[in-house]
Structure formats: C-alpha cells, structure tokens
Protein: PD-(D/E)XK nuclease family protein
Organism: Acetivibrio mesophilus
Amino acid sequence: MNNDLRFFNYFLFTQQSISTFEKCPLKFKKRYLEGLKWKSVISEELNRRREIGNNFHIMAHRYFLGIDTGFTEGIEGYEELSRWIEALKTYFPKTDDALYLPEYKLRMAKETLRLEANFDLLVVKKGGIEIWDWKTPGKNKAVDERLKGERLKGSLQSMVYLFVLKEQAQRVVQREIDCSNIRMFYWQPEPVSVLAEISYTDEMHEEFRHTLKRKIDGILEYDYGSFDKKLYRKNCMYCEFNWFCNNERVDFEAVEEDEDFLDQLDWDSIEELR
Ligand code: SF4
C-alpha cells in the first residue's frame, strides 16, 4: 500500500482511468499504476488513424491560439485533414466577444474527488462557458450519429468534464458560474455535425458528485489480492495486455470493424499514455 500510487494526493483520476478500471482493475493497474503503454502493440492502421486524429487536435489547437497551423502536404492524412480543418474554420469563425481556450487542463482535489479534465476547447462567452470536444470520424463513417450522440451524452467523459468545470470555473473566469451557464458539445468535422449537446443543471451536478465519488472510492478500496481474471474475460480480446494475461494476441482485424471498440478506444487515451 505504501507504494500504491492510488493513495498519493498527486494521483488524479481521469475519465479514461476510471473507465479503464471498470473494464478491468488489472488493466488499470498496469496502465496507470505501473505506466505500461499501448503503443507497442497497436496495429499500423489504428496507429495511422490515431496520428490523423492527433494532427487534427494539434491544428485545431493552433487555429484557436491564432498561430500558423503548420499544415503541409507531407502530413499523414493530408486530404482528410484539409477537409476537416476547413470545416472547423467555417463552423467556428473566431469572434471578438468570446475567449477561446484550446487544450485546457483543469484539476481538482476535494477529499477523494481527485480529478483531471483535459478539454479540447473552452469558449468563454458573456452568457457562460462552453466545452467543445472533437470526435474525428472512424473508418465506418456510416455509424448511427444519433446513437453515438446518446452514448456520448451519458458518457463518463461528459460527467467528468462538466463536473470539474463547474467546480473549478473560478480558475477560468475568476468568478462562480451557475450550472445553467455551462454547456458541452461533441463536434465532428465530417460530416459536420454536433453529435451531442448537453445543458448542465444543479441536479446533474449533485448526481455526478455522488457517482464520481462512488466510483473513485471503489477504486481506492479495491483489493488486488481478490482479482479474478475470469470476471473480465470479455474485455481481454480488446486489451493490450492480452498476451501478458492469456498468451493471446489482440485480433486487430476484428476490433477495427467494431465501432464500439473504436469509440471506447479514444485516441486521447492513447496519447495520454505516450
Ligand atoms: S487481458 Fe484481460 S485480464 Fe488482462 S488486463 Fe486485459 S482485460 Fe484484464
């Protein structure tokens, strides 16, 4: 327990780490307590798509900072990226009455609620704050956007981002912000679409506080001596530690066709582990 990172005050929980624990506590341990990484086992195609997604995030960051996007022909996914960046610029013409804060990180620690949120973009307007999150399209562009939107609305990411922003809004705008003045959007560049829009409320905030506390306390109280691999077997095929645990390789051909997996894979979480 002395060297168990979970109990250090500087160890912050993210949406990815909580979600990883729920899939498998051992996976959480390997990724977040021992710092082992995906990258070495990711397939070439997934790696290419991760790189294109990362490039889009980098260019969007530079666009909102008002500096050169550094977009050149040799870049991975040039054609897709040029369409996506044009879509971004058209959808988000920057205006003088808003403050744009791209790639913004907020942290909080209140008892066991030790959380970190990494926002793609915060937009501060007179009426409140908007959270924007970029979702770059996967291989299967025909995915049902309505279902994807519903899934995003109820996701752990929405919960963590909205909760942390409300708790720490003072650090962003030097004043308290009412829940009713916080909104979150998931946006994709192709086809251009707001996949989900969430208006925050006081009731949601209290519900999220209890849910996140319960989840984090569950992680802190978990006894690794009781770990039973059989309980998590359905997640092994999608897990980078499949070789370590089961002497089996991840079947990338299968997972690359699985939109649920790709949604949950979350390119940001891979980036986070680099
Ligand atoms: S391979 Fe299975 S048991 Fe091992 S860490 Fe991954 S999900 Fe858990």
Remarks:
- The pocket of iron/sulfur cluster is lined by residues 24, 26-27, 229, 232, 235-236, 239, 241-242, 245-246 (CB under 6 Å).
- The chain has one domain: 5-272.
- Residues 44-65 form the longest helix (22 residues).
- The chain has a mean pLDDT of 88.
